[in-house]
Amino acid sequence: MTSTTHTSLRRGIPTSIAANGTASGVTKKPTEYLDISSSDPDSDVSGQIPPSVGDLPYLQFLTFHKLPNLVGPIQPTIAKLTKLKSLIITNTGISGPVPDFLSQLTNL
């Protein structure tokens, strides 16, 4: 049985991902849920989705919510998340078309 870890970050996005699929400073267990959101409209989370998010091989649920300063396209490294069942991107500055590489994620 796999243990489930739910991670909710309020002040930033993990920029370092360990080789075993854990986000640096977030959890020691394989990360299956990553909820990056903010209740603060002036959140200091800005820039693009970090490519390192694709280095979480056990990730099943990924949410980016209420992050207006999170901009740019959906990162191609998300295609490496083969266990991903849910990808939610709402109320962000993410722009562009839905990328074709998301069709590779057959569990979505």
TrEMBL record:
Recorded superkingdom: Eukaryota
Stretch list, region Disordered: 1-25
Protein's cellular compartments: Cell envelope
InterPro entries, A to Z: LRR_dom_sf, PGIP
PANTHER family: POLYGALACTURONASE INHIBITOR 1, POLYGALACTURONASE INHIBITOR 1-RELATED
Name of protein: Uncharacterized protein
Gene: Vigan.02G277400
